[in-house]
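[job 0412] stage=fold_complex status=start
inputs:
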Amino acid sequence: MTSPARSHDTSDALAIAADVKARRVAAVDVVRGALERIAARDPAFNCFTDVVASRALATAERVDGAIALGRDVGPLAGVPFAVKNLYDVAGLRTLAGSRINQDHPAAGRDAAAVQALERAGAVLVGALNMDEYAFGFTTENAHYGPTRNPHDPDRVAGGSSGGSAAAVAAGLVPIALGSDTNGSIRVPAAFCGVLGLKPTYGRVSRRGVALFAGSFDHAGPFARSVRDLATAFDAIQGPDGEDPVCAPRPAEPTVADLAKGAAGLRIAVADGYFATAGQPEAFAAVERVARALKVDRHLTWPEPERARAAAIVITSSEGAELHLDDLKTRLADFDPMTRERFLAGALIPATHYRAAQRFRAWYRDRVRELFADVDVVVTPTTPFPAPLIGQQTIEIGAAKVPMRPLIGLYTQPISFIGLPALSVPVFGIGPLPLGVQLIAAPWRESALLRVAAALEADGVVRAAIAG
Amino acid sequence: MSIDRTALETYVTVTAAAIGLPIPPGSLPLVAENVLRLLAAGALIVEFALPDDLDPASIFQP
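[job 0412] stage=fold_complex status=done
writing structure:
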């Protein structure tokens, strides 16, 4: 054990795991280093709502013990990770960003994805801040305070998995888990300059993950390197009989395919809707990625505006129904950022909800047709970089428009039909990072990760620790 | 989407009361604004012609 844990502060997860497995550093020391980092730096960013230090050190000791016995502890040996606080963690209340859930009993066992990462050798160190009940894109949480963007603490981290993205961007942990209903992994990944993968709907178990809108809710990982992201994804993907929407199809590991890069993949940039209503930097990031990939093909996505509208209707309706009892009896305990939107969601005519679900089937079939002759589609992740905390409006062209409703413009039409999508970070266009969204046909996460790996190898995509 | 503000607030008040949902007076304008936004989104969908035999994707298989 010659290498102090401190040298692993900025390593990616697989570099840490390699050193732990080779016994160049103890998992306990790596985890202790992460806990010290969180204690020292998290007050500036407010990523964590819970730190499970005792559990983490005990888990790390077990990892070290198994390695000492010559056992295979998995690809993420000794890697600290944290999860959005809507994942069940045994012994913690699953807050889902709410005050109301403080009155719930503690979870009896870990969520499936938490168990899967620990089976792969990783070590849970805590739970992370989010928008209340995942209904937001900024993590300006009235109960637990805003999570601040590590690249500019006056700005939002994005949401609803803001704590997850910020914890990775700040270098507190190399891997985190979040959830994505309409963009809640991809948006904070873009704003914080890290990688965020929303897998295909049904690819990753949601057992033990508090729902927001069950029709669209996905679990997925954040990381600072493509190989870390792929490794975390491979660890959590696959069937789970305890999750009724988890697909009964075998896992399709992606790590081994990364070396193939983008060779042979048909890639196009989406025009029209995905090339309007954003600030110039968002499109400049797409152009930079397209140039690096030598892509000059453009395509027009079918009915994205209507898809987004339908996603909003379904999300609002399902979210309101899920929390209807609390809306009736504990309205004052809701975050002012969500309260009136939840109330409005309870008042949508059933005809609109059903029409949105029928449209969804139609739209899915059109998009399937589109993917018959393309493998990966490129769009901006968000229309602009991270706004200021408390910002209400934003300038798009000559117009000043409400900011928050626009954040999910490019992500909502994609998760609406469960397509896998990956936000990759692009730096250097302006003072803040931007995200570029890579989209594939269902179950083609491997294609997304291969393109991301190619971009990372070219230096176009990188996820530096802030500061 | 054009709708009379008074009619909208009446819709919100009456519909919420019918399902036992409290709308604090101070919240009514913001709830109504959000309902208007959702109705506008819904209008984009219901105006779109779909085949009568198209089943909803409520249990979704990508």
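[job 0412] summary: The CA atoms of residues 5 and 32 of chain B lie 8 Å apart.
[job 0412] exit 0
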